[in-house]
Design a protein that fits this description.
Order of helices and strands of chain B: EEEEEEEEEEE
Largest interface: A-B, 24 and 30 residues
Largest sheet of chain A: 6 strands, mixed
Shape of chain B: globular
Oligomer: heterodimer
Strand content of chain B: over 45%
Number of helices of chain A: 0
Structural class of chain A: mainly beta
Radius of gyration of chain A: 13 Å
Structural class of chain B: mainly beta
Chain lengths: 113, 113
Amino acid sequence: ELKVEQNPLFLSMQEGKNYTIYCNYSTTSDRLYWYRQDPGKSLESLFVLLSNGAVKQEGRLMASLDTKARLSTLHITAAVHDLSATYFCAVDKSGGSNYKLTFGKGTLLTVNP
Amino acid sequence: NAGVMQNPRHLVRRRGQEARLRCSPMKGHSHVYWYRQLPEEGLKFMVYLQKENIIDESGMPKERFSAEFPKEGPSILRIQQVVRGDSAAYFCASSPHGPDTQYFGPGTRLTVL
C-alpha cells in the first residue's frame, strides 16, 4: 500500500524566516502534487512535479522532487502571515493515469508576526 | 465560474441512518472524484466517476458505500447504515477532460453519533 508521510505535521514560524516541509512516499511514482488548504475551504493546487529533479517556484514557495529518494520538499522563503494554511503533498498511484491520489496528513503552518 | 460545490457542509447522523453527500462539479467538468479524510490522516481516494459511469471504485469500502453521477444533477456519495467509523471529511473533486488537475470542493464533514 502506498504511504505518504509529511513532516513536520505542525510548523510555527516567524515572519521572515525560512523553512522546509518534507514529503516521503513509499512506492514509485512519477507525479507529485502540492496543495494548500485554508480552514473550511477547498484544496488549492500549488504545484505538479512530473519528473526527477523537477523544481517549481511560485512567490515564496519552491517545490522540488527527487524520485530516486522518493522525496519532495516544499521550501518557504521569508515567510509572511498570508502563508498560514495546511499544506498537503499527494502522490498519484494510478500508474500515470493521474486520478488516484494518495495524500499525506498535511502540515499545518502558522506564521507569526 | 463557481467552483466545486458540496452540500451539506456539515452532516450529523445517528448510527444506522443513511448519509447522502452531494457534489456539483465545476461547469463543463464531467469527471468527478471522491476522497475521504479520516481524523489524523491524509485524504484517500475512494471512487472516480464520469457521467453515468463508474470508472474506478477501488477505494470504496465493499459494503454500505455507493456513488453515482447521473446524466443530470450532482454526484451523490451514499452511505447506508452509518457507523461511528464513517465520521470523516469527504471531499469531491472534478476535472474537465479526464484525469487531469483536480479541483476540489470544500468538503462535507460527517459526524456519526
